[in-house]
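Table S2 (text version). Query chain:
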Amino acid sequence: MSTFVFEFLAVIVIAILPQVLTGFYPDEMRTLLNNLPGNWRFITTLPGRLGSILLILFIGSLRQDEFQSIGLNWTKAASLSTLLAAGALSVYLLLILFLAGRRSAKSREEMAATRQRVLIGLRYSDTGTPWKRLAAYADLWIAVLGEELVYRGYLVLLMSRQTGILFPWIAFSLALSILVHLYQGRTWKLALGQMLIAALFIFVIVITDSLVAAIIPHLVYNTAWLSRALKSPSEGNAS
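Corresponding structure-token output:
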């Protein structure tokens, strides 16, 4: 088995499959996980998230261009095009979040239900103390880094370089982005929303060749979402 195939299978088994399966957990399993104490919720998710990040960084380090293969080139990260793309997308996503609270009463009720599913799915329901809130934010930031490294850095940037084709990997990445967010709800509106946001992240990394262009707006949006979701029951879904 070639190193390339072995790496791909390792990413599927270690980084992708566990996340996809969470969207299909039976209610009994969700109840068991959600009944864990708050600290244990964070501890149980941390190894998997860190493992995914370290795996992709290790794979990137094996390439001749090292981390550039997964979009982590510090020169490009600090370039004007990357900063402009990241800034523009951050503003756009924050505008979406702002406008979400100004929809109809029915839409706000639907978003409130989605918000509850997201918080429970991410195991953030126990955030009563500053340390538990900090753990929730830290877990969220680690999750964002892992998601970007796996689904954009590895699947889109590295695999397109490795195979010489781009669009099939974009399609695969988009499909997985929908599947790993199924815990938020299984409606076409949520699936379409996740696909569109993922497509925006892919667009900025492809035009800038820098994963930072997606990491920054993803962190900004999800941090703003969690901050408001912990205070308000009428927010939309996290990306």
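Notes on Table S2: The chain has a mean pLDDT of 84. The CA atoms of residues 13 and 36 lie 25 Å apart.
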